[in-house]
């Protein structure tokens, strides 16, 4: 009986039904007019869409467990670890850095716009470093290891990536004057959209979303971000607003003639959770161990993935440069 109760709690927890159930049981529908109530109502959206995606894939005989295997085991593994490790990095950063904010914003529509632009910049910084610093890539690569795109990928993260991301994003936002209530609202909106943009071809074939593709970062843009094609590598680091990708020249639309190849550039055992979760960390440890000098050992940690002490680099920038050199003018 205890096992069944635990299973029930895990299922309800995964689908985030508890908040919505509470509103229905208490008949407190006025709560839906509040930020907390809206959050509880929308929380089951991504898990339910994931189930629909799975059903459609099964119905059209496109369902492959390998496509969802890494994300599934990553979610289970992180659930186990989270029972013993709970790091409130958002709260810590707010407490540490709020006294040093350059000014104090308020909960108004114009400060919301300001806050979202700042948040998107903070997200860009965290995400960019996740691709350009090898130590951070070791934390982020688990999210890119899948060779397909589907909603389960939103749950596929190395357990330390969240705290690392929150340190950067929260610190920048707080120092730039985004007050905590406004920050939490932005985080909710961005988190919901950040999950949705992983929607796969089994549910939405063309994810450009019409005219929205010219205004915001759509699931199509994020599919490009998850591609290992040289044209697509290290692009679309923002989450909803594309402003900073435009500023830094990393915005890339999906090309009809360039079919997306998902995954990371190194050979990976298809559907292997351990390789996806720990593979990059093991390879980094080996490179650091075999590096001939102390300087090289340090550089392996902080230089981009693909950097090599011999000078024969295979970083994304080198691969992209070689690719463009072969294209016809």
Automatic annotation (TrEMBL):
Membrane topology listed for this record: Multi-pass membrane protein
Segments traversing the membrane: 41-59, 80-103, 109-129
Pfam families: FA_hydroxylase
Domain of life: Bacteria
InterPro entries noted in UniProt: Fatty_acid_hydroxylase, Sterol_desaturase/TMEM195
Keywords (A to Z) from UniProt: Lipid metabolism, Membrane, Oxidoreductase, Transmembrane, Transmembrane helix
Protein location: Endomembrane system
Domain Fatty acid hydroxylase: 113-250
Name of this protein: Sterol desaturase family protein
């Amino acid at each position: 009986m205890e096992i069944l109760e635990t299973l029930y709690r895990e299922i309800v927890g995964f689908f985030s039904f508890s908040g919505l159930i509470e509103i229905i049981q208490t008949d407190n529908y006025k709560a839906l007019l509040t930020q907390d109530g809206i959050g509880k109502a929308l929380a089951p959206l991504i898990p339910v869409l994931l189930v629909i995606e799975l059903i459609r894939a099964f119905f059209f005989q496109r369902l492959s467990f390998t496509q969802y295997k890494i994300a599934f085991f990553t979610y289970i593994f992180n659930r186990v670890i989270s029972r013993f490790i709970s790091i409130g990095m958002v709260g810590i950063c707010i407490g540490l850095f709020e006294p040093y904010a350059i000014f104090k914003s308020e909960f108004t529509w114009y400060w919301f716009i300001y806050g979202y632009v700042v948040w998107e910049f903070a997200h860009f910084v965290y995400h960019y470093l996740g691709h350009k610093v090898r130590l951070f890539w070791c934390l982020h690569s688990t999210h890119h290891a899948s060779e397909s795109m589907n909603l389960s990928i939103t749950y596929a993260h190395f357990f330390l990536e969240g705290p690392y991301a929150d340190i950067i994003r929260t610190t920048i936002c707080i120092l730039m004057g985004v007050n905590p209530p406004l920050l939490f609202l932005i985080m909710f909106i961005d988190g919901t959209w950040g999950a949705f943009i992983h929607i796969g071809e089994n549910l939405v074939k063309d994810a450009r979303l019409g005219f929205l593709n010219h205004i915001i970062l759509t699931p199509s843009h994020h599919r490009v971000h998850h591609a290992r094609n040289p044209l697509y590598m290290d692009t679309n680091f923002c989450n909803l607003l594309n402003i900073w990708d435009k500023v830094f020249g990393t915005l890339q639309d999906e090309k009809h003639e360039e079919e997306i190849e998902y995954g990371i550039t190194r050979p990976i055992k298809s559907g292997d959770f351990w390789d996806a979760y720990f593979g990059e960390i093991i390879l980094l440890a080996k490179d650091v161990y075999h590096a001939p000098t102390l300087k090289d050992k340090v550089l392996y940690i902080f230089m981009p993935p693909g950097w090599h002490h011999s000078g024969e680099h295979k970083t994304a920038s080198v691969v992209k440069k070689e690719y463009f050199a072969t294209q016809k003018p």
